[in-house]
Design brief:
The protein is α+β, with helices and mostly antiparallel strands. It contains nine helices and four strands; from the N terminus they run H-H-H-H-H-H-H-E-H-E-E-E-H. The protein folds into two domains: 132 residues; 75 residues, Regulator of K+ conductance, C-terminal domain (Alpha-Beta Plaits).
Length: 225
């Protein structure tokens, strides 16, 4: 009976994790990131990674994470209680079985296309209702299409872009936009179009990945030696 109890409760924990992963992915989070963060929050291990910022900056994900943290704390109490119940042979297998079945139903329901569509619509509504665009994560605001990226490239001495005017490099019609130039400790944003690119500059660019990859080749020195 003790073994059955452990299996049932383990099933409940796994289902809660998987349901949370489905919810996270519906908000746009990658599955691997979602699962890692869900397990981290549920177990209270508190890993601090750049990926955790994706949770903190998103109102819907924050709500899911709060549930996971509370469920993790509750699970610890259940484990302690279970040990006590094992000693008294009162394992409440019927209740655990019902909870497992309900969570299993929620998990499979959350995987259906109709439910996904409804939840995605609801999550998007929550985002628009709760956040201004200035509060959204960069990825949510700028990665509007599959090929969009935000990146930085460093200009090497002797590169093709060294000494070129910004207006010549980022011409009209090219799907790559210069956000600002970091030159030493200074961030240059005003009158960018009039700036001349210099060796050592770090360009922060937003646009199509393929276009930016071609542009990156021109940042490298023609004479590496």
């Amino acid at each position: 009976m003790e073994f059955i109890f452990i299996l049932l409760y383990l099933l409940i924990v796994l289902l809660v994790i998987e349901i949370s992963v489905v919810a996270f992915t519906l908000t746009g989070l990658e599955r691997d990131v979602a699962r890692y963060q869900a397990i981290s929050m549920l177990t209270g291990t508190g890993f601090t990674t750049d990926e955790s910022q994706l949770i903190i900056d998103h109102p819907v994900r924050r709500r899911i994470s709060m549930f996971l943290i509370l469920f993790g704390a509750f699970s610890l109490a259940v484990v302690i209680s279970a040990i006590t119940n094992m000693l008294s042979n009162d394992l409440r297998l019927k209740e655990l079985t019902i909870i497992s079945i309900v969570l299993l139903a929620i998990y499979f329901l959350g995987k259906t296309p109709l439910t996904k569509k409804l939840l995605q619509h609801r999550f998007q509504y929550e985002m628009k209702k709760n956040l201004d665009i200035s509060e959204l994560p960069v990825k949510e605001v700028l990665f509007l299409q599959k090929g969009d990226i935000v990146t930085d490239i460093v200009i090497e001495e002797g590169a093709k872009l060294d000494g070129k005017k910004v207006e010549k490099v980022f011409e009209h019609g090219h799907d790559a936009n210069l956000l600002f130039i970091k030159r030493g400790e200074v961030n240059i944003r005003e009158d960018l179009i009039e700036e001349t690119i210099q060796a050592g500059d770090k360009l922060y660019i937003y646009g199509d990945k393929q276009v930016i990859e071609k542009l990156t080749k021109e940042t490298e020195s023609d004479n590496p030696h």
